Amino acid sequence: MQNIPHVPVLYKEVVEAFKDLQEGIVIDCTMGYGGHSCMILEANPNIKLIAIDQDQTAIDFSTKRLEQYGKRVSIRKGRFSNVMQEILQEVDPGEIKGILADIGVSSLQLDQKERGFSYESETLDMRMDKEAPLSALHVVNEYAKSELEKILLEYGELRNYKKIANAIVQNRPFVSAKELSEAVKPHMPRGKKIHPATLLMQAIRIEVNDELGELRSLLKSIEEAKLPDAKVAIISFHSLEDRIVKREFSKWSKSCICPPEAFRCTCGNNNQLGKILTKKPITATDEELKENVRSRSAKMRLFQMGEK
What CA–CA distance (Å, rounded) separates 7 from 32? Predict the structure, then answer.
């Protein structure tokens, strides 16, 4: 753990989820700084791992971090939704025994103020891939008021979204996240454990990186692959992501997918892809919460493909 620049969330639970794999491939869709990848490789000496990330800084670090595992590791750069589709075309679906996705921004990205993810940052960026064309600077300064209202309501779930959007439009241009958070501070919710600007930053970050679209694309790729024997673990950090995962897992577990109003089944009643392993999401223990306060919002759901 000393060689990892931050402690990955739910690390004990992730190791437990993928324990006892005797062979095959595990795909870490969100490698980051290699914490989960390293632990899975250590716990399962006979498996291979394909790791994906779009952040070149993370790739550079994790390439060195994971080089000790030699040919057991393959690292791919790109959005996990796109790279997953490529992998599923290259690899026999039966070889894939596990898929892990730790959705959202990493602690290292939050802590690097020059990346513009934090409300204390002197920049406005928020791109997980530094080469991506859309940045927070463009969203905040160029989006129409109606577009801002939409993302503040849908991605930030902010009740005061109209006043916040108006404050942004009236005070722009902005050059830093710190400046932005101060300008909207009078209109942000208070009384919660999080900073008042957290939900604002979340909404902008989701828009910049198309995070919900990426998650939906990943889940669609997994669904279409019809994996015969793979455990899927998705870690989310806010209710928007968790609802998407919960809904998809529920759909995958159903044999009949006819609409509720249908008089009789016409779908074949053979559409079940596997079974849900977590009726309720797995959350951090009290011990982990003391070690890593950012784990408080982490939720992991598990699904076993191929098992009925």
Answer: 11
